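Task: sequence design from structure.
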């Protein structure tokens, strides 16, 4: 047996460190895309960070060289809105923190922000610890952080628990204007004011609860139970009114605001107006609102065996004028980010809209709300860029750079820049791809609303902090390699990031 003396041990660790200090990876001959520019350059990675960007970088002895000729070098996407392993609608969303983030990695997403839902009487920091335990036990495949879904700010103690989350590295919160567990306008206002004081950002799920409930009551009384009435009870006006009100509350509170999953024209116009007036109002939209319309609630897509109920998510898809307004909002800057709201439920669970879990007659309110999308967001928006609808710079901006800035992680994520984490996607603009849940998707769900969607171009490799996690076909990382990303304080004074 060889016994190592302290001296020898220290020698080994020093030389191991030296060894680790070489250039680990070199992406050669690719085209780097940032939110602002596109240029040919080599990208070097050392110890999980981008260490050099430039022409003709020379590999060292042990450097792994990746031929990126003809490929784009992009920052990994940041999905700022996921619901993994979330109890909702009488069940738990299908993807856990491993399968969901595995799918993320295979779609070029290297960081996810998942929602912690605070229970009534539970402080937010306790809720955060509770969820983080579940996440760590599942073993996330990419990096992650959280937003806190505010469920109880009825006492000063509950409100003050926001501060504790900040100390734990979470500076982003979300209130619900809809659902029984959501806040009222007074509580929303107080949350906004407190957030502004402590350097936090409040997101909002904006739908008018009272009108939504009144419409549900009316449709059910009239025997209108189909998925179409999910859309009808959460229509453009139900969302648009709440968007306008949320913006007004933020103005009154003197606080920045982040509208999540914006889906309607009135909302886009209200955000654009507030931003033009100089307010720090930001909006996120989701690929499902850019790709599908409310038509999916009429009869689904029968040729793909997708039923109307498979598309039930909240908020639901809207009409074409809203879809056009969202695309326009992306182009003009009214929409700052893209995220998925990934919240998958199985076909059997979706059937609860016909026959409930307990065997009763179902309706549109008994369908668990949510759809899958975590693997499709970046490929979809990049494909739209590849087809010329927006620039690649814009796709990178809304999928990576802006979320990093808004959520206080731009010190390490969101761009191909020296010193940032080497979260890198190698993208082949020539690779055609068609979604097949059976053949090429990596989540746990038994179907996807993105079935047979065609993408022009596709990621052929994803690296998370310099480690290959997707090789163009499969997930090749290790469960548990994903790390928690601490958010910094967020100080947004105006509309510019
Ligand atoms: N919307 C969904 O579709 N699912 C989960 C929560 C939400 O707001
Ligand atoms: Zn929501
Ligand atoms: Zn959501």
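Answer:
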């Amino acid at each position: 047996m060889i016994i190592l003396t302290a001296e020898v041990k220290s020698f080994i660790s020093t030389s191991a460190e030296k060894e680790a200090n070489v250039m680990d990876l070199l992406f050669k001959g690719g085209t780097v895309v940032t939110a602002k520019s596109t240029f040919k350059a080599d990208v070097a990675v050392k110890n999980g960070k981008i260490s050099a960007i430039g022409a003709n970088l020379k590999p060292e002895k042990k450097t792994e060289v990746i031929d990126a000729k003809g490929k784009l070098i992009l920052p990994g996407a940041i999905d700022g809105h996921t619901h993994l392993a979330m109890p909702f609608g009488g069940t738990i969303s299908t993807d856990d923190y491993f399968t969901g983030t595995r799918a993320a990695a295979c779609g070029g997403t290297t960081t996810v922000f998942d929602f912690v839902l605070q229970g009534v009487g539970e402080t937010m920091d306790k809720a955060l610890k509770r969820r983080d335990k579940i996440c760590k036990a599942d073993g996330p495949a990419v990096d992650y952080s959280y937003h806190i879904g505010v469920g109880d700010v009825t006492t000063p103690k509950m409100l003050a628990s926001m501060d504790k989350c900040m100390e734990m590295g979470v500076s982003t919160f979300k209130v619900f204007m809809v659902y029984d567990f959501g806040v009222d306008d007074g509580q929303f206002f107080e949350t906004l004011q407190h957030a502004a004081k402590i350097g936090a950002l409040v997101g909002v799920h904006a739908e008018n609860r009272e009108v939504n409930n009144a419409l549900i009551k009316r449709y059910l009384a009239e025997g209108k139970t189909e998925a179409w009435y999910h859309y009808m009870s959460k229509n453009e006006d139900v969302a648009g009114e709440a968007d306008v009100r949320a913006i007004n509350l933020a103005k009154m509170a003197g606080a920045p605001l982040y509208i999540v999953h914006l889906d309607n024209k009135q909302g886009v116009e209200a955000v654009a107006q507030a931003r033009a007036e100089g307010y720090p109002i930001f909006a996120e939209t989701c690929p499902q609102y850019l790709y599908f319309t409310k038509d999916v609630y009429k009869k689904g897509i029968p040729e793909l065996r997708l039923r109307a109920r498979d598309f039930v998510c909240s908020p639901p898809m809207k009409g074409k004028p809203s879809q056009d307004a969202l695309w326009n909002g992306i182009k003009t800057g009214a929409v700052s980010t893209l995220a998925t709201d990934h919240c998958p439920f199985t076909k059997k669970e979706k059937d609860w809209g016909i026959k409930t879990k307990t065997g009763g007659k179902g309706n549109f309110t008994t369908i668990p709300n949510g759809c899958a999308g975590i693997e499709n967001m970046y490929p979809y928006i990049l494909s739209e860029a590849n087809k010329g609808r927006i620039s690649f710079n814009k796709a990178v901006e809304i999928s990576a750079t802006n979320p990093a800035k808004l959520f206080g992680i731009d010190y390490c994520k969101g761009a191909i820049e020296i010193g940032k984490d080497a979260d890198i996607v190698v993208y082949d603009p020539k690779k055609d791809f068609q979604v097949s849940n059976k053949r090429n998707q990596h989540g746990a769900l038994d179907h996807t609303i993105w079935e047979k969607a065609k993408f022009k171009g596709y990621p052929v490799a994803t690296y998370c902090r310099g480690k290959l996690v997707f090789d163009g076909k499969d997930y090749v990382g290790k469960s548990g390699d994903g790390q928690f990303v601490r958010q910094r304080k967020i100080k947004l004074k105006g509309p510019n990031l």
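Residues 6-75+412-470 form a domain with the Urease, subunit C; domain 1 fold (CATH 2.30.40.10).
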